[in-house]
Design brief:
208 residues, 11 strands
């Protein structure tokens, strides 16, 4: 949290019978503390020059996918034939747009420089979602997908997972706690970016 300057997450879902469309958007501005070291220069290291570095990361992740409900089963917590609690499963396909700008701010004695530029690409994704009714108002959600597959300009490989526990506190409002994980492996030139974005979240949903 000490490295977080700003963060916004927005998720929307529309249902059409067994079909669904989901949009998921994220924006983060992360910044490290500035670290300062003394660098020794010269043939014998007799010249000492202060050097410091700070890293900032701006990132946008926008995802749009379409899903289809493939089954509805009686849930493991169902108390009988009249108990409506169940388990819903759906498959989805879509695309994830990722845009990153890592900036390295270097100060070396009297000289300073900022290095970094935007890097953007699109991954195709394939995944599945499960909704398990724990009670009439509490639902355990599990979602996972894979993508990239090194097709065109996409990642070498990427996968994500979301686990959530939601409570329908009214007919139109839902509160949720969860954990989200995204792992990205991407080749840029002769280098490989291995990036993990993960952490807990608290969310509020409105249905209309």
């Amino acid at each position: 949290m000490k490295n977080l300057n700003a963060g916004v997450l927005l998720r929307g879902r529309a249902n059409f019978d067994k079909f669904s469309v989901v949009f998921d958007g994220e924006y983060f501005d992360l910044e490290s503390d500035r670290e300062t070291r003394t660098v020794r220069l010269g043939p014998e290291g007799g010249l000492e020059v202060p050097a410091s570095v700070k890293v900032e990361l701006l990132q946008y992740i926008l995802e749009l996918n379409a899903g289809y409900e493939i089954f509805v089963l009686k849930g493991p917590f169902s108390a009988g034939p009249n108990d409506e609690r169940g388990t819903v499963g759906e498959l989805y396909v879509g695309a994830r747009y990722i845009s990153l700008k890592p900036t390295v701010d270097v100060q070396f004695g009297p000289v300073s420089a900022k290095i970094g530029e935007w890097e953007s690409w699109v991954d195709g994704v394939v995944g599945a979602r499960l909704g398990i009714d724990l009670s009439k108002t509490v639902v355990l959600g599990i979602q996972g997908d894979v993508g990239g597959f090194n097709i065109g300009q996409s990642d070498k490989f990427a996968w994500s997972q979301i686990t959530s526990l939601s409570w329908n506190c009214s007919d139109s409002k839902t509160l949720a706690l969860g954990y989200k994980f995204l792992d990205i492996k991407r080749g840029i030139g002769d280098s490989t970016i291995d990036l993990q974005i993960r952490g807990p979240f608290i969310a509020s949903f409105i249905r209309f």
